[in-house]
Amino acid sequence: MKQSDHYDLLSAYATDRVRKLGGKSYRPQMAPVLHIEEARERLERMLGKISDWSALSRLIPLDWSTGLRRRSALASTLLACLELARDGRVEIRQLRPFDEIYVKDRLTAQEAIA
Prior knowledge:
By secondary structure, the protein is mostly helical. 51% of the residues lie in helices and 11% in strands.
């Protein structure tokens, strides 16, 4: 088969597909996103209430705990925790690679020592 034959075949197929779809374009459903700012505000409200090492997955909002919403919530909550750790407000640990991530309120830990 010549190169021009391939081009003609693909062009004919594309033209037929456009005609069958009636000019409609594919628009995938947008996945829900928990914004990092929302996750950080929520974690800041929880500071002082996180008494010991808490699993990151337990800190996400209940209405974001399943499906695609869970992925977004975990990612945003992790990034918010990293920002709070950078600011010295929480401690983060992970015992093994790909294991659960744990978060602890740094101020509560310091108050327990004092």
